[in-house]
């Protein structure tokens, strides 16, 4: 009989605790949902659109890269003026310059210089030290590019 009384008190205590903790979060969640959910969902939609757009642009860039249409890739990067996409593509382009079989012409490098300059001045420069070093190295080549006759030298 004592054990039955103990079990009843235990169940009653557990039910009271569960009721207490279940009610409080529901009220908090509903308050949060009512007040802030619209703002959170708008931010989510915006971020989804930004990422979708960037993914499309990167897929276009990848198509140019796979076709080895480097001049078209560079022209595309210059045309869209999206530094996020440039940040993603630039390491691949600079690595290609270091290979024996270079696919990037001097003219393409010159066309990239304004983007490099913008990138060095942008918020991306703060987060990517390796890229900064690569860009600085490319920027130092400007003096050599100015000696090239014709259009390339004039642009540099």
UniProtKB/TrEMBL annotation:
Highest taxon, organism lineage: Eukaryota
A GO molecular-function annotation: microtubule binding
Subcellular location: Cytoplasm, Cytoskeleton
Assigned GO CC terms: cytoskeleton; nucleolus
Ranges for domain Katanin p80 subunit C-terminal: 42-130
UniProt-listed Pfam families: Katanin_con80
InterPro entries: Katanin_C-terminal, KATNBL1
Swiss-Prot/TrEMBL keywords: Cytoplasm, Cytoskeleton
PANTHER family in alphabetical order: KATNB1-LIKE PROTEIN 1 (PTHR14682)
Name of protein: Katanin p80 subunit C-terminal domain-containing protein
